[in-house]
Write a structure and sequence with these properties.
Distance between the termini: 42 Å
Shape: globular
Number of strands: 14
Largest sheet: 2 strands, antiparallel
Low-confidence stretches: 1-32, 322-334, 399-420
């Protein structure tokens, strides 16, 4: 019993510092104490494990840190960190993968925290198993709470297997989970993970115990994914079907409007939000209502949202409230200040009047760097203090300074009052619209997931015109000799993704926040897992049916059975789940896995020295880092327009990350071998 005492005392401040019932307990160091025979102790320990999940989703988004995004596929085939400089945090490793080491923050971060999570989950399992006298509120509560812990243990090991391949598996609490056991290969780990998710599905309830806790459907979803990894394709299809068919709870795609903005007929640019387009848009709205008032929660947690299977929670409180709660240390602070929007904030022109040029005709012309405002003609940014008295500005207000731009460009303020933004850059295949000669993930211009409703590619200048129009006008004036532009006048515009952004914000201490909680599992992904299971069994027609459930909602043309292969499914995952799915897990389990026989149609070679799925897709679709001019470091190619471009310098062995250095160094009795290719 005593081994739990120091753990619970350490955890209670993080999860229950205002819990009167806990504070009244007098027998913490007594093996016979009533506290440890109380269901509340189990719930507090579970809350600590869920806090770890929340931290891994939201924690290091503060100050633009990108560690938490590695599992979402940063540096792979959808998005990257825009920094090409290899700093102490190794930001530039994704243009030059050989610089990625076992000491990198990206490596150590998940290696450390996922073992922490598995150990916290095992604490709960041991507390339940070793204390038969605990009284529970219902006859099934014991198994349900135990199943939550087993689920979280499986989830942590799933991530470790996906990122590192080999891992240490333990089903009991240890002083240090990674010290006393041998590393096992991922194929063996997947068997343990499958067993845990099987147990969780059997014993979890169909409805969440509390907002953010896991259910049968979440377990079945991950079980389907794990079965796919193991080559148990029929079992994978069956597990996904239990979610889709309603056996494990009431979940379905949202095709009707719901939540805090359901009464809004159009977006700020006049685009229709009629369902089902508006229903998809609704999925990602925060707590602000159409009328500017604040609701009690964001749309991912809305009771009418039947698409959300598991949502990571964030407790949005102010700085004053943080300290009133006894908060100390950065990790506590981060949990309460959402800056997801700032992290995904687009690169757009900013600044005051530097975007003007004197013309040879005596007039001063507005060009295209004086400010990006997202407001169409006739709508002035609120609070602007000066007008742009320049040709091409139409006497409209400029959105300057930062405080006025926030609701115009995107939230760029963060918890400590500084500014963050432009940290994550989507690959050009995500950015480009359908029909681009250079290639795009979007295969249909009518797919509203890639339309201006969800991906804003154009912006409005103070003239009320779009950037694309102004750029043509600037070029015409330059060609006419009115003025010249130089390299310093060039700009880099990237899209604003309304999946990570809003035009109505919670305002605290002069900072604006997009406070949406974040999806860990949507049933849309479950459909794609079942499509993959059907493809693996040769049932391409069935796979197309599942994919078309999503495409039909999106207004996209349906695919046919002949279209379906692993590339098509991976592309559809981008279209539906960009920035949500744990992309590294997906691509890694499809690489160098003998059970994934269906990938060889597109990627016939699967090894760690020549080629594999993750390697090939990253080379083809990954961010080019064209500003990284280090000579000879990366392979070049010529695009469809004749431009010389670059590929990320990734190697086949990078389909898994290096084993974190602290795991290798902390082992005293057994040798832990580094993954192939890494020093």
């Amino acid at each position: 019993m005593k081994k739990y005492i120091f753990i619970l005392l350490a955890l209670v401040l993080a999860v229950s510092c205002n819990d009167d019932a806990f504070l009244e307990e007098k027998t913490y160091n007594d093996d016979t104490g009533s506290f440890f025979k109380n269901q509340k102790a189990i719930e507090i320990a579970l809350a600590s494990a869920y806090t770890e999940v929340q931290y891994m989703v939201f924690g290091n988004m503060r100050n633009g840190s990108s560690h938490n995004f590695i599992v979402m596929g940063m540096g792979l085939d959808t998005f990257a960190n825009g920094n090409t400089t290899v700093s102490n945090d190794n930001d530039g490793v994704f243009s030059d993968w050989p610089t990625l080491t076992s000491a990198s923050g990206y490596v150590r971060h998940y290696g450390e925290y996922m073992y922490k999570l598995s150990n916290r989950a095992n604490i709960v399992v041991d507390m339940i198993d070793e204390n038969p006298d605990i009284e529970y509120s219902t006859p099934t509560m014991k198994q349900e709470l135990r199943a939550e812990a087993v689920f979280l243990r499986a989830w942590s090991y799933r991530i470790l297997a996906g990122l590192f391949g080999s891992l240490v598996y333990s089903d009991h609490m240890t002083q240090e989970a990674r010290y006393d056991y041998e590393m096992i290969p991922r194929e063996e780990a997947w068997k343990f993970i499958a067993a845990d998710f099987e147990y969780a599905e059997q014993n979890l309830p169909t409805t969440a115990r509390l907002m953010g806790t896991v259910t049968k459907a979440a377990a079945a979803h991950y079980l389907a994914e794990t079965y796919l990894s193991l080559g148990q394709f029929a079992e994978a299809e069956a597990a996904a079907s239990r979610v889709i068919n309603g056996q494990d709870g009431d979940y379905h795609l949202m095709t009707t409007r719901f939540g805090n903005r359901a009464d809004q007929a159009t977006d700020r640019y006049g685009n229709s939000l009629a369902a089902p387009q508006g229903a998809y848009w609704d999925l990602f709205r925060g707590s602000m209502k159409t009328d500017g008032t604040q609701a009690s929660d964001s749309n991912p947690n809305d009771p009418g949202n039947k698409e959300a299977i598991w949502v990571a929670q964030i407790d949005m409180v102010s700085q004053a409230e943080n300290w009133a709660l006894g908060a100390s240390g950065d990790s506590w602070w981060r949990m309460h200040v959402p800056i997801l929007e700032a992290t995904w904030s687009p690169w757009v022109p900013q600044g005051g009047k530097n975007g003007t040029r004197p013309g040879s005709d005596g007039k001063t012309y507005y060009i295209f760097t004086a400010d990006a405002v997202c407001f169409p003609e006739g709508v002035a940014p609120a609070g602007a203090s000066s007008k742009g008295a320049y040709e091409g500005a139409q006497d409209r207000y400029l959105a300057n300074p930062l405080g006025i731009r926030i609701d115009s460009i995107a939230c760029r303020a963060q918890g400590n009052g500084g500014a963050a933004g432009g940290v994550m850059l989507s690959s050009e295949f995500v950015q480009r619209p359908a029909g681009s000669v250079l290639g795009s993930y979007w295969d249909d211009p009518n797919d509203f997931r890639g339309s201006e409703v969800m991906v804003q590619r154009d912006y409005f200048t103070p003239s009320g015109k779009k950037w694309s129009e102004v750029k043509k006008e600037v070029k015409a004036r330059v060609d006419a000799g009115l003025y010249t532009v130089t390299a310093s006048d060039t700009i880099n515009i990237t899209p604003r993704y309304w999946k990570f952004s809003d035009d109505k914000h919670v305002i605290q201490n002069n900072n604006c926040y997009y406070d949406a909680d974040w999806y860990l599992v949507r049933i849309a992904e479950t459909y794609l897992l079942r499509a993959e299971a059907r493809l693996a069994q040769g049932n391409k027609s069935g796979a197309a049916e599942d994919i078309n459930v999503l495409r039909n909602r999106a207004g996209a043309k349906p695919c046919s059975a002949s279209d379906v292969n692993i590339d098509y499914i991976l592309d559809e995952r981008v279209r539906e789940l960009f920035g949500e799915e744990q992309r590294w897990i997906t691509l890694s389990r499809l690489s160098c896995n003998p059970a994934a026989t269906y990938v060889t149609e597109c990627y016939p070679t699967q090894d760690n020295t020549t080629s594999n799925t993750l390697y090939e897709r990253t080379r083809k679709y990954g961010w080019g880092f064209e500003n990284d001019v280090t000579a000879g470091r990366r392979e070049t190619y010529t695009d469809a327009l004749g431009n010389t471009r670059h590929r990320p310098n990734i190697q086949p062995f990078n389909y898994v990350l290096p084993i974190p250095i602290q795991i290798i160094n902390s082992n005293k009795d057994r040798e832990i071998k580094q993954n192939y290719g890494y020093k």
